[in-house]
Design a protein that fits this description.
The chain is built from 14 helices and 19 strands. It has helices at residues 2-16, 46-52, 104-115, 124-130, 153-156, 220-229, 244-248, 278-287, 290-297, 327-336, 353-367, 380-389, 421-431, 436-453, and strands at 26-31, 61-63, 69-71, 74-79, 85-90, 131-138, 141-146, 183-189, 193-198, 211-216, 234-235, 253-268, 303-304, 343-349, 371-377, 395-400, 457-469, 472-473, 490-491. β4 (74-79) and β5 form a beta hairpin. The longest helix is centred in the C-terminal third of the chain and has 18 residues, at 436-453. The protein is globular. The two termini are 30 Å apart. 46% of the residues are buried.
Length: 493
């Protein structure tokens, strides 16, 4: 009796002090890729933004989990009647993690740096084409003058590439990032993890989590083991979709399947022979069996695409029949292009399962029309250097996860080297148009032009397949923008 009484008293004491039923306040999240740097305004690659977007760094606006634009560091704004002048009112009493006050000067510094000739921002052209000047009106007011009206401007400044940085810390943000967000950087153990902790001085609503650790696990088997062993609490985009059924059958886990902005493509070096020949690119398009790729590389998760556009977007049109799977037609086009016996090429594959598996399937599909493809596995940093920066590749498999990024094809210096004045004119009109009906028509014209030109091999849209501890809630089901947003994530009892 005494023992029962003591136990009951102990439990009552624990409950009264919040110790018995307190939910966890830390989380360990698995990521397939490790960032090459932690400054999203200088580093390309989704991994950087997965760690930092809306966690460490914030922008004037933010993209919510439904893909809509919301206020953030800019609490409100006014727009001139001609849609070329945007005046933003900034949140007061905001500080960077090092205690430096955030003001309009930081906004001007951020965008002047982004627009500078030596900027390495992955979306630089987007802002260079749009922004004329940035002017500080007072410490909490900043004005943007645009070169032309823009229907995308508020969305574009909410991207991870446009987060606000301080001149005091920008030089070291790549390794020790300092932003205004709800979490601050603690440590980066290269090859292993990045640790964040709750920012006690955060200007907005405090998140439930006190600590978040991003653990880098690229190997699918290791990812499965880590979840089952409790070494990680979830993946927003699981590295082993072939193992999803294991977790669907286990009540300790939740499988959450949503959409992404990830157009998975067989990216083509349009400036390198023989891929500068439209007939060669058309032949490759006819060789591609998208459903086979979805089953083999995506394990059934994914939606076929025929151009560079997300199927969930209201402007999307299905262009998968522009060049339907037809190996005989592919062989005929190769012969017409002067390659009756085909040719040899290489495919560089970054270390993500959809690319490594997809590359093997694509090599077989290309072989059926006479193209002999050597597969070259590269690590992520090497892919960024060789393919993205130096354009040293023939073909590669990659998923572009930036939202509404069809405009990258208007930049002839982008890594796949597509230089088409007709397409560039369409995008220029799209960028300058605010009328919704006209924007939809122009976006669909752009999709059709890319499909007709077979610029890349358009494969499928990635699904976001999340696997989480069933007691974790508040994560984003869909991925309208790159980021594993922590501020809504919490544990339930």
């Amino acid at each position: 009796m005494l023992k029962k009484t003591l136990i009951a008293a102990a439990l009552a004491l624990l409950a009264s002090t919040g110790m018995a039923m307190a939910a966890r306040t830390d989380i360990r999240i698995g990521l397939v890729l490790e960032p090459t740097a932690l400054d999203p305004t200088t580093a390309a690659g989704a991994a950087t933004k997965e760690v930092t977007y809306l966690n460490i760094f914030e922008g004037l606006t933010q993209i919510d989990q439904n893909g809509a634009v919301q206020p953030l560091l800019a609490t409100s704004w006014t727009i001139s009647p001609d849609n070329t002048v945007f005046t933003f009112k900034l949140a007061p009493d905001v500080k960077f993690h090092d205690g430096t006050p955030f003001t309009a000067d930081d906004v001007k510094f951020t965008f002047d740096r982004l627009l500078a000739p030596d900027s390495t921002n992955s979306q630089k052209q987007l802002y260079v084409d749009a922004i004329d000047t940035v002017t500080v009106i007072d410490p909490t007011t900043v004005e943007f003058k645009l070169k032309a009206p823009s229907g995308n401007f508020l969305f574009d400044i909410g991207r991870g590439a446009a987060v606000i940085v301080s001149p005091k810390s920008e030089a070291t943000n790549a390794t020790r990032p300092i932003g205004t967000g709800p979490f601050r950087f603690v440590q980066w153990d290269k090859g292993s993890r990045v640790v964040l902790e709750r920012n006690p001085g955060y200007w907005g609503k405090a998140p439930a989590l006190e600590k978040a650790t991003f653990v880098f696990i690229g190997d699918p088997a290791t990812a499965v083991s880590a979840l089952l062993a409790g070494d990680v609490d979830g993946f927003n985009n699981f590295a082993a979709p072939e193992a999803v059924d294991i977790f669907k059958a286990n009540p300790a886990f939740t499988v959450a399947v949503g959409t992404t902005e990830g157009e998975t493509i067989l990216a083509t070096n349009n400036k390198r022979k023989p891929f500068d020949d439209l007939k060669v690119r058309q032949a490759i398009a006819h060789a591609i069996n998208r459903q086979e790729l979805i089953e083999g590389a995506g394990h059934g998760f994914g939606v076929p695409i025929g151009s560079h556009f997300a199927p969930a977007h209201p402007y999307y049109i299905d262009l998968t029949n522009t060049y339907p799977f037809d190996p005989a037609a592919g062989k005929k086009l190769l012969a017409e292009a002067g390659y009756p016996d085909g040719f040899s090429t290489t495919i560089k594959l970054p270390p993500v399962p959809y690319a490594r598996l997809g590359g093997q399937i694509l090599a077989q599909q290309l072989a059926a029309i006479g193209i002999k493809a050597q597969l070259i596995n590269v690590e992520w940093a090497q892919w960024l250097t060789d393919v993205y920066t130096n354009h040293d590749f023939d073909l590669t498999v990659i998923s572009h996860v930036e939202p509404f990024d069809i405009g990258i094809y208007a930049n002839p210096n982008y890594y796949f080297g597509y230089d088409d004045p007709e397409f560039q004119a369409i995008i220029a009109k799209l960028n300058a148009t605010t009328d919704e009906a006209q924007r939809k028509d122009l976006a669909q014209q752009a999709q059709k032009r890319l499909a007709d030109q077979a610029v890349n091999g358009f494969l499928f849209e990635l699904a976001q397949v999340g696997v989480w501890n069933s007691k974790v809630e508040g994560y984003w089901l869909n991925a309208p923008i790159e980021g594993v947003v922590l501020k809504g994530i919490h544990w339930v009892d």
